[in-house]
Design goal:
The protein is an alpha+beta fold. It folds into two domains: about 120 residues, Vaccinia Virus protein VP39 (Rossmann fold); about 170 residues, no CATH class. Strands 1, 2, 3, 4, 5 and 6 form a six-stranded mixed sheet that branches. It has a three-stranded antiparallel sheet with strand order 10-9-12. A three-stranded antiparallel sheet has the order 11-14-13, with no helix packed on it.
């Protein structure tokens, strides 16, 4: 096995065996043949997989992608923390049209009927950068077109240096994110600072509360779920969010109210871990602040020119799971 090498593969940088298998199967298959696999969802929404995506779509006369979350239920009981996609293509001259499902979330008891309920939506704008957007409704397609109508993204305003003009955010996102304009409380016996949390620094001429507002919005949550792998809350995903900067004082005012509300509902937790010993930290419950978040989305709806229908879709997106009792606080 020491001499084993993968050769004559164009998507070698993808670094996944399934990518090589699919590329090889496409090479040896004839026009009009079909290819379908069950693979990790990250294949169609992470930068590293761009070479594989190119191979896939360069061979696809028709392509459909069905996406499945792993919570609250998962497609396979023996897979932990694996989100999957079922891609199917017909080989032929490539087309921009891609059929996508929503990000399917379901309870385990519903799994037997899951495939009967799956619907696809066909669009020519679902592919963007390294990702295939999980467009599922006409409202989502219109939202995507309006987002892509922005000429800049959050990355435009990022500072290459550390400063005090930062957004403080949790490593995980879940149904709500921990996104603050201050560093959250954390005290550990073995380490100092807050573990697992990060900073996104902005150039000082821009008000960081504008970005705190964007990242707390349901619009940003929708973007994160449908643009990313639904698991890793990275600077790449944050930076790719489309936004032409506007010094919106209404949005800044709402962030002041939201930060106060988050502090009001926050609870001090104590736990013991092998790596950190005894730790104290603040746990936040942003689902209790949803009315303020809705107001933030109303402000952003004006910025992007969303219709009432599109705003209503965003405010209520994934509401069954985001606001359920089982969610508790932050993820």
């Amino acid at each position: 096995m020491k001499n084993y090498r993968v050769r004559n593969i164009q998507c070698i940088e993808a670094g996944n065996l399934y990518a090589y298998v699919i590329e090889k199967s496409l090479k040896i298959s004839h026009t009009k043949s079909r290819n379908g696999m069950i693979i990790q969802m990250s294949a169609f929404c992470t930068p590293r997989m761009e070479p594989f995506e190119k191979i896939w779509f360069d061979n696809a006369k028709y392509s459909s992608l069905a996406f499945f979350d792993d919570r609250p239920g998962k497609l396979f009981d023996n897979l932990q923390h694996i989100r999957v996609v079922i891609p199917i293509l017909e080989k032929g001259n490539p087309s921009k049209l891609v059929a996508t499902t929503c990000y399917n979330k379901f309870y385990s008891e519903c799994r037997m009927n899951l495939f009967k309920l799956i619907n696809y939506y066909i669009s020519d704008i679902s592919r963007k950068e390294f990702s295939v957007i999980k467009i599922h409704t006409p409202a989502e397609e219109d939202i995507v077109r309006k987002l892509w109508g922005q000429t800049k993204s959050i990355r435009t305003y990022e500072s290459p240096r550390m400063n005090k003009n930062y957004v403080y955010y949790g490593y995980g996102y879940g149904y709500f994110g921990k996104i603050l304009n201050y560093r959250s409380y954390f005290k550990g016996e073995l380490i100092s600072g807050s573990t697992g949390d990060k900073y996104y620094y902005f150039n000082e001429q821009y008000d960081r509360d504008i970005f705190v507002g964007i990242m707390n919005s349901s619009l940003f949550y929708w973007f994160y779920v449908n643009y990313s792998d639904g698991h890793n809350f990275t600077k790449t995903v944050i930076g790719d969010f489309p936004y032409n900067y506007k010094n919106d004082r209404e949005l800044v005012s709402l962030i002041g109210a939201l930060m106060q509300d988050l502090k009001h509902y926050a609870t001090r937790k104590v736990a013991n871990y092998k790596s950190t010993g005894r730790v104290e930290y603040d746990e936040y419950h942003p689902n209790r602040s949803k009315p303020i978040i809705d107001e933030i989305d109303k402000v952003l709806a004006k910025h992007y020119g969303f219709s009432e229908e599109e705003l209503d879709f965003i405010i209520n997106y994934d509401i069954k799971y985001r606001m359920g009792d089982e969610l508790g606080g932050e993820e």
